[in-house]
Design goal:
- There is one protein chain.
- Helices cover 35% and strands 16% of the residues.
- The protein contains six helices and twelve strands.
- It is globular and about 50 Å long.
- The structure holds zinc ion.
- Zinc ion binds next to loops.
């Protein structure tokens, strides 16, 4: 797979221990696992890591903030890696905390480089210069999305149909309020993949499934999926798992197994629809 040189690395998902920053080169911030995976899915894990790379240490990110869910999505990378293996899917993730820059936000969003999150100040980002903001975009946000785009373009050129899935986790209690959902499915007007996920998950009466809960595209959380799914006309959805469900490897495996089964069951119908869209476009 063609990737921007020096920005990403690729290795088999099964060779990597769960939930560790895996880059052998500490300067590599954009991670690609199973980049040549030929299954029907491409996976994103925008908030996989709470690492602050050496170049950003002088800003003084507080350790007590980096341990919190405001810095990353605990458990999400473990689930995404297992899914990458099950589905033979390329997996993209930035190995840097969202507090440095949030790859799942548009460039004009106030939360791109947050100065506050869930009522907690992120003082390391207060008063940041325009030059530093531009550097973070250039070194993290842009190469992450360029790498995803290169993969999707190459898959299309190779005749590989793709469904785009983002894996996130959310905190059980937000601003003092408990969240009842075990999992949430986030989607926009293209509900093809989301409908299959909601139906599959709701088949288990033990689950409360959030439909565009606890977040929806109006919260700007759908940026990465929307950007690439629209460009490449892909079925897509974002999966938000409550993080106490996936706090250990056993929970991550249960969720990866559950999601893989639903995703694979939905694939024939979704990719049939996608191919029909392509045929229509060609006729026009
Ligand atoms: Zn997230």
């Amino acid at each position: 797979m063609a990737l921007p040189s020096g920005l990403a690395t690729s290795f088999p998902a099964e060779s990597v221990p769960a939930d560790t920053a895996a880059a052998s080169d500490p300067d590599i911030l954009i991670m690609v696992e199973n980049g040549a995976g030929a299954g029907p899915f491409v996976l994103l894990c925008d908030h996989a890591s709470n690492r602050v790379a050496d170049a950003y240490q002088p800003f003084g990110f507080a350790a007590d903030r980096l341990g919190l869910h405001i810095a990353w999505d605990p458990g999400a990378l473990g689930v995404a890696r297992l899914l990458s293996g099950r589905l033979d899917a390329p997996l993209f993730w930035p190995d840097i905390s969202r507090l440095v820059i949030d790859c799942n936000r548009p460039l004009d969003a106030a939360s791109l480089i947050a100065v506050e999150s869930e009522g907690r100040a992120v003082s390391a980002n207060v008063g940041l210069s325009g030059t530093e903001r531009a550097r973070r975009i250039e070194c993290v946000h842009a190469p992450y999305h360029d790498a995803i785009d290169a993969c999707l373009t190459q898959r299309h050129a190779s005749g590989l149909a793709t469904i785009l899935i983002a894996i996130h986790s959310f905190t059980p209690v937000y601003l003092g309020k408990a969240r009842p959902w075990h999992v949430g499915i986030v989607f926009d007007e293209d509900a093809r993949m989301a409908n299959a996920l909601i139906k599959g998950l709701a088949a288990d009466p033990g689950f409360m499934v959030g439909v565009n809960e606890p977040y929806s595209p109006a919260d700007l959380v759908y940026y990465s999926v929307s950007r690439h799914a629209r460009t490449h006309r892909l079925p897509a959805a974002m999966i938000e798992i409550r993080n106490n469900e996936i706090g250990d490897e056993a929970g991550q495996k249960i969720w990866a197994d559950r999601l893989a089964e639903i995703l694979l069951a939905a694939t024939p119908g979704l990719l049939g629809a996608q191919q029909a869209v392509v045929r229509c476009l060609q006729v026009e």
